[in-house]
Amino acid sequence: MDDYDYIIVGAGTAGCVLANRLSADPRHQVLLIESGGKDDYFWIDIPVGYLYTINNPRTDWCFKTQPEPGLNNREIGYARGRGLGGSSSINAMIYMRGQSSDFDQWAALGNSGWSWDEVLPIFKASEDYQHGADAFHGENGELRVEERRVNWEILDAWQNAAEEIGIPRIKEFNRGNNFGCAYFQMNQRKGVRWSASKGFLRPVLHRQNLTVMTESHVHKVNIDQTSDGSKASGVGVSQKADAPRLIRARREVVLAAGAVASPQILQLSGIGAPELAQQLGIEQKQDLSGVGQNLQDHLQIRTIYKVKNTTTLNPKVNSLLGKAAMGLEYLLFKTGPLTMPPSQLGAFAMSDDQQTSPNIEWHVQPLSLDQFGSPLHPFDAITPSVCNLRPASRGSITAQSKDPKAAPLIRPNYLSCPEDEAVAVAGLRYTRRIMQAKALEPFRPEEWKPGLDFHSDAELLDAARDLGTTIFHPVGTCKMGSDSESVVNPRLEVHGCQGLRVIDASIMPLITSGNTNAPTVMIAEQGAAFILADAKKTPNVT
Questions:
Q1: Local structure of 40: helix, strand or coil
Q2: Whole-prediction pTM value?
Q3: How far is CA 386 from CA 190, 389, 424, in A?
Q4: Angle at which helices 418-435 and 153-164 pack, to 10 degrees?
Q5: 396-398 and 304-306 strand pairing
Q6: Pairing state of beta strands 446-449 and 210-213?
Q7: How many C-beta atoms surround the C-beta of residue 375 within 10 A?
Q8: Any catalytic annotation for residue 298?
């Protein structure tokens, strides 16, 4: 069958939600296309398996940025999930909605329907909260949210230290203002990763009106010119080594391939800046200069402190006996270090007195390593990483050739403006204040990176450029709005092209101040509701 009502491109977080919601009506024939494979690699299920899925070509596209001037011309890894569940199959599992001011800003930019009060019920509807429903949480949804299943003395002490210098201890985040320090809640079920594939896709694979294609690469969206303007009529796709073929969409094509791939597909389809289409030798279909622009990401500065008189994950992972003990605990009880996300403890604060809500976030890890994929250090250490939640820097995603399988050019443009430089320096100084608090004195923390040789603002900024890396939150490259740089309207329809929407993290006009997976679920829920509402208006489509 090469005709469907809806074609969804990308089976990541947004794609899995969309496939579930659109196929709920048996009258809708739905096709979900994923360029990666199945999510059956055993390290996906084990939470600490992110150490083995990131930088692994089986589960990660292993993208790299271009040399970044703001990072002292370093190229850095840019992990994107490869396979069903997308990045939710390899991410940190942290359930973080962002703050109320994020969504109110979206609405203030003219995006009606996206304020905090309007999206909070959508977050709740998707959620299956361990402690049951309340004013801020839902239950019986597809997205399981649970508490941690392992404790670390050093993290309790870090929370005490943060409280000591004015960051209050709070019960949880996700209530609108995240100022404070708390343990992260996670997308897990009884110690097992709960990806979008597990929550939304697998339970509905039995539906006769839902088809899933894996290892299938979309080359472009097919755009027809009609008397009413441009219209998406389908996609060109090749499965494994097969020749490309056209699959038609009777109603809509929905790009849910993420902030890296969705703009690339649009550009290869002739939707984007005319000069890029000319450069690539592609017929221009729609002039939308904002496609691939407005890239925003959270840059984390990974400071490392050696500690004593306590235990961290480092010696456990570096010991055969430690590995065996952790494995046995996980096998028997689904508790212990193997249930750990990359970060367990978080904190939000203001970098200066001019901020009206938290603009920096710490992810505190009871471990240390040079970079994801590297061995853990042979000494006890912790990694309090601090990131700027509202970066002013803007980057881009650009197709570099007509070959749809060629990685795009990724230019995040980190630390390219004075505001971001100031926040980076302030974040490093703030981290030092926490680490010097009395609550941590018994553990004799010793700053290993960047090191106490870095004193001045200029020296600390240079350290930030050396230590900074992505926290894997790219958004904004097909932004929602009505200005000249926007790509989709508030109903997520591509400007000037009927039957084509983008529904994923790329539509964020401004990055949420926190981890981005939960907002992506919300975006997909909202987008699915828009599609289904429009379907009711035109029930008969041939």
A1: coil
A2: 0.97
A3: 29, 9, 8
A4: 110
A5: unpaired
A6: unpaired
A7: 11
A8: no
Exactly one of 137, 298, 363, 473 is catalytic; name it.
473
CB atoms inside a 10 Å sphere around CB 446: 15
CATH class of 149-183+299-388+414-472: alpha beta
What 3-state class would DSSP assign to 369?
strand
CA 226 to chain centre: 36
Helices (H), 202-273: 258-268
Question: Domain 1-100+194-296+395-412+474-542, CATH 3.50.50.60 — does that match?
Answer: yes
One-letter identity of residue 355: Q
Please report, for residues 140, 256, 308, 489, 490, the alpha-carbon distance to residue 298 in angstroms, rounded to integers and kept in the order given. Answer: 31, 21, 31, 25, 24
Q: Where are the alpha helices (DSSP H) in 310-442?
A: 313-317, 320-333, 418-435
Residue tagged 């027809």 (tokens): 224
335 Cβ partners below 8 Å, 6+ apart?
149, 150, 191, 329
Residue 258 corresponds to which tokens in the numbers above? Answer: 């993420």
Q: How far is CA 444 from CA 194, 307, 430, in A?
A: 37, 6, 18
d(CA 224, CA 451): 59
Cα–Cα distances (Å) from 510 to 298, 351, 540, in that order, read 12, 19, 37
φ/ψ of residue 87, rounded to 5: -70, -20
Cβ(295)–Cβ(413) under 8 Å? yes
CA dist 93 → 194, 247, 341 (Å): 8, 34, 6
Per-residue pLDDT of the chain in tens (542 residues, 90 and over written 9): 589 999 999 999 999 999 999 999 999 999 999 999 999 999 999 999 998 999 999 999 999 999 999 999 999 999 999 999 999 999 999 999 999 999 999 999 999 999 999 999 999 999 999 999 999 999 999 999 999 999 999 999 999 999 999 999 999 999 999 999 999 999 999 999 999 999 999 999 999 999 999 999 999 999 998 878 899 999 999 998 788 899 999 999 999 999 999 999 999 999 999 999 999 999 999 999 999 999 999 999 999 999 999 999 999 888 899 999 999 999 999 999 999 988 999 999 999 999 999 999 999 999 998 877 678 999 999 999 999 999 999 999 999 999 999 999 999 999 999 999 999 999 999 999 999 999 999 999 999 999 999 999 999 999 999 999 999 999 999 999 999 999 999 999 999 999 999 999 999 999 999 999 999 999 999 999 999 999 998 877 65
Copy the structure tokens of residue 21.
């919601």
- Largest Cα–Cα separation, the chain: 75
The distance in angstroms from the start CA to the end CA of the chain is 14
Give residue limits of the domains in the chain: 1-100+194-296+395-412+474-542, 149-183+299-388+414-472
* Spatial distance between the Cα atoms of 366 and 316, rounded to a whole number of angstroms: 11
Tokens representing residue 366 in the block? 């009871």
Q: Are 488 and 494 in contact (CB under 8 A)?
A: yes
Please name the residue that has the structure tokens 């009413």. Answer: 228
